[in-house]
Please model this.
Amino acid sequence: MSGKISILIVDDEASVRDSLYQWFTEDGFDVDCAENATQALQILDSKYFDIILADIKMPGMDGLEMHRRIRSLNTDSIVIIMTAFASVTTAVQALKDGAYDYITKPFDPDDLSHLIRNATNQISLKSENEALKNKIVSLDNVENIIGVSEPMMNVLKEVERVALSSSPIIITGESGTGKELIAKAIHSNSHRKFNPLVSVHCGALSESLLESELFGHDKGAFTGAMYNRKGRFEMADGGTIFLDEIPTVSPKMQIELLRVLESKTFMRVGGNKEITSDFRVICATNKDLKKMVEDGTFREDLYYRLNVVNITIPPLRERIEDIPLLVDHFIEKYCTSMSRNNVSIDPAALKRLKHYDFPGNVRELENMIERAIVIGNGKEIRLKDLPFEKDIINNSIESLAELEKKYILKVLTKNDWNISRTAKIIKVDRVTLYNKIKKYNLKSPK
Amino acid sequence: MSVPGILLISYGNFEKEFLNKIATGVKQEFLLPVSTEERHIDLSEFYDPMRRQYDANRILFEIDTITSPPHIKKIGLFSVDLFIPILTYIFGQATLKGSTGIATFHRLRNEHYGMKKDEQLLLDRFGKVIIHELGHTFGLVHCHIPDCVMRSSTYVEDIDQKSHNLCINCRSKIQTS
Model:
């Protein structure tokens, strides 16, 4: 489908028209308004609209009558009826006459968003012909995936090949290779792209917290659960759920996950109503799941349910030719965010980077470049700005751990031990940072 | 001569440090000077007793009349529950390609949903809403890139899913506009 989706708002109240006009314009729709049914029909004479959002009660011709006339125009516009009166009779009549749905004023923002998303999906599906479906699409929104090497091109081809299906995917790769970026690229190039991509970092949550996060909870489910809360599976309805660090999920939760993946239905914690959600699942792991199945630490049936498509991201040391591009990308990113002129990189420093094996992969390279820009001379990244010579020249596991400890301590100190800010700068989540502080026995001076 | 920038106008009982943190985040995102000031407004004029909420459209109109050179954009920060006639509530509102926005943290607080108070999470959420609304004043519409701060969020947990940052596309749109 090309171009913006068009919406015609028909309501006699100016405040309603203005609010909806702004809401849909901000959402990128092409919006027109009419203050009564007659004016709407005149507009429809000369212009096609994908969606017509019409008030049921208007002076003169009402919304139901207008809807009947729209149908007689033989248009396939989707008509949604708005009503200030939660009248089942009029709503049912509108649906019988072929309206797509109805919504009661004032709307909950989420209900309105959901309704329009569903309508938009229907329009998108309608406008796609078989030829388009079979055509090899070019990938959108992959600007953050940097690389021209053959291994990365193969990954992107795989992303392109699987994006349009709804099959589960396992993304395998060492820490810092960009598994979440690949998940985002798959989502952004799928039919689900207008619906949410919901990420869950399984490793950061205990079993009970993960259960509540994934399935949500009803009021009174446990102490402190004062309100109903949506879970991540529910939030991902129509979209994609990304389960990071899937091997950390407990055996009990593995059974729960398998059940949900098979039925796409679940109940909130403490709830008794079955909820259905249409989501695609993408998992990420830095461990060999097959080996975990052989060792008995990961369920075989869950593994086969998830492993319909497997995308393996190569470590950075296997795509050395991407390092200069990545360096340029991170220089631009950090110089922009620090409001500095772009710096260059000394050939000796670049050569050293190309000969390093990057156990922390792209994330490690990114941290190195950010650090080099912070401590550098503002013109060029020199070999001495990189943490090789002083910190990791011995290349031992101990020295790498020591480097990480020193780096974390330095960033913590610089940020007055603000955990969130530090976690953001070093690109880990807060739980991981707390774990590292504990691991290295770092202590705040205060 | 002063450099044109962004003005954050506090109409709620916000701590100075809280505002400064928000200002730092906004500055990093738009690369413009950001200043803060406190103002007072009689909110009772905008209160709708039927809905027990405050009319965001009218407040936005009121703030839009404030002249604040050399600022090119301004956003009013509130702690009360805001609505627009068609929606049950909003987190913020702005004039597309205009100069004014408003944002409230009323429904961003964990306590509103019966959960434990979390100041850092509140700061994160409020920062995102403010950057999002300012993005509209720069002419940005909603973006479907999951991480982008301009992605539409219709409930509070949805805000947590996105970052504080504009995606490359949105950033380049601001730079070219």
Summary: Residues 230 and 304 of chain A are 28 Å apart (CA to CA).
